Amino acid sequence: MAILSDKTIREYLDDGKIVINPIIDEKQIQPSSVDMRLGDEFKVFKVIRKAYIDPKDEEEIASCMEEIKVPEGDAFIIHPNEFALATTAEYVKLPDDIVARVEGRSSIGRLGVTMHVTAGFIDPGFEGNITLEISNIGAMPVALYPGQRVCQIVFETMTTPSELPYGHPDRNSKYMGQTKPESSRVKLDYELKK
Length: 194
Description:
single chain, mainly beta, Deoxyuridine 5'-Triphosphate Nucleotidohydrolase, Chain A, globular
């Protein structure tokens, strides 16, 4: 596998092989990645009295979360030990021979904020806004602004195109085409359907 350079990223964007929409500033394209901006919709866990969250109960998972839409110019405040789901402002589409990784920007990490807990890998064939699993592991609340560059996406070529890319009818692609933060759909995992 090889990481794409800025030159190749630009070529693939121009050719439509990779789609990132919208890129509002050429400065978003870095030497080996593209800076991604924060969307304006968030999902956070409510403080409720429940013994646990059951991953087999999708409705229960959704009922434990509330949606927040941040008005233009306002910030989303993430408090210490808080977790939130958000998406990138950009819509991404990958071909069947390129994978991507989402990495937090160092400037945000230095404030104690992580941009992904486990969802840093993007399969070939994925299409949608990228989910960000945001956590504040620092000691102070941090303001995050929609439109702010908070993470970067790195592209890698595969040895061959995937035979069954994400979104293929034979795959259980639970988050294909997502445009806003989605609660966990772990209930749809084949091993939990038994």
